[in-house]
Amino acid sequence: KNEVEQSPQNLTAQEGEFITINCSYSVGISALHWLQQHPGGGIVSLFMLSSGKKKHGRLIATINIQEKHSSLHITASHPRDSAVYICAVLETSGSRLTFGEGTQLTVNP
Amino acid sequence: NAGVTQTPKFQVLKTGQSMTLQCAQDMNHNSMYWYRQDPGMGLRLIYYSASEGTTDKGEVPNGYNVSRLNKREFSLRLESAAPSQTSVYFCASSVGTNSYNEQFFGPGTRLTVL
Q1: Which of A8, A25, A75, A95 is most buried when burial is the number of CB atoms within 10 A of its CB?
Q2: How far apart are CA B91 and CA B96, in angstroms?
């Protein structure tokens, strides 16, 4: 079993829909990252969380440390949001990130 | 600023050939990383360098060597390429290895080993 599990693996939405991508992990962590991988392959960091909630534009990330779960929400989705979204965690005992497999999001116009 | 740059973007090798993937960053970051990305798997750490002059193995180091040439540059070498090393390779850098440091990624190198 992977230490970091994302769901769903694939998600197709219509423009304007509210989207939720989930990340569950099985180890104690000191921080969780959400990243976006563009269709061309480039990877950018969206959020770093250790507790609570963060918002940037139409993106919202939440984390529940007790339940070992994080969600990434996209409001008013747009075709340009189509990408792979990746969750990564840093274990409290480590210094390196462990990555989930990613969620492929496609937003149709 | 160019951020993190990688060369080459694409490479095809025959089994047994050697090559070096180059990575450079211009953000004065202390830490640098090499990852590989394979279908159906998350990014996996090959090697990392917490600071200039140090390197450490990651999750999948076998078949690779690295050199932290200076603060800017971190290269990954395949001494004798194998088909199992067909992958997309990403270099990344961060201010430090602390989890709160954002990692900045290069554009990737797509390597095929025949």
Answers
A1: A25
A2: 15
For residue B41, the model assigns a pLDDT of 85
What gap in Å lies between CA B81 and CA B67, rounded to an integer? Answer: 17
- CA angle centred on A7, ends A32 and A10, rounded to 5°: 120
User: Contacts of residue B108 in chain A, CB cutoff 8 Å?
Assistant: 41-43
CB contact under 8 A, B43 and A99: yes
Give the up-direction half-sphere exposure of residue A105: CA atoms within 13 A in the CB hemisphere.
30
What is the reported pLDDT for B2? Answer: 81
What is the separation of C-alpha B8 from the centre of its chain, rounded to a whole number of angstroms?
12
Residue A90, min C-alpha distance to chain B (Å):
6
CA distance B51 to chain A (A): 13
Question: Looking at the partner chain, which of B48, B98, B103 has a beta carbon nearest the beta carbon of A45?
Answer: B103
Chain A residues touching residue B97 (CB < 8 angstroms): 95-96
Tokens 């840093």, residue located: A90
Structure confidence by residue, pLDDT tens digits, B37-91: 998 888 999 999 988 889 999 999 999 999 998 999 999 999 999 999 999 999 9
pLDDT over 60 at A1, yes or no: no
Pair of tokens at residue A36: 């976006």
Q: What is the pLDDT of residue A90?
A: 87
